[in-house]
Write a structure and sequence with these properties.
about 100 residues, alpha+beta, Rossmann fold, four-stranded antiparallel sheet, 3 helices, 4 strands, about 25% helix
């Protein structure tokens, strides 16, 4: 198994008394493609917002390539959202999977 690129450990996000994400833990390795298949309201968008550093987790730890998701959120965003090149959809998938040039 490859070294984990994305690691979520017991991630929780609450909005007041409402819990949007409840203790999600997962590890995604370099080259893996991962998708969320859940019911509406299951916390998919909130989890992605936390992964992008747009929403602070209430509890738990998360990292992308060793960078803390919240403390290093501006570095995480610059890596994830940098418009390096105008890429096609397949080029983006290859880049994410670690096969890009």
């Amino acid at each position: 198994m490859c070294k984990p690129l994305i690691v979520l450990k017991d991630l929780v996000r609450k909005f007041g008394r409402t819990t949007a994400v409840t203790k999600i833990s997962m590890s995604i390795g370099t080259g893996e493609i991962f998708g969320f298949l859940c019911a509406n309201g299951a916390g998919k968008t909130t989890t992605i917002r936390m992964l992008c550093g747009l929403t602070k987790p209430t509890i738990g730890n998360a990292s992308i390539d060793g960078l803390d998701l919240w403390k290093d959120r501006f570095r995480v965003r610059s890596v994830a959202l940098s418009p390096r090149l105008a890429l096609t959809g397949i080029q983006i998938l290859l880049e994410i999977a670690g096969y890009g040039s």
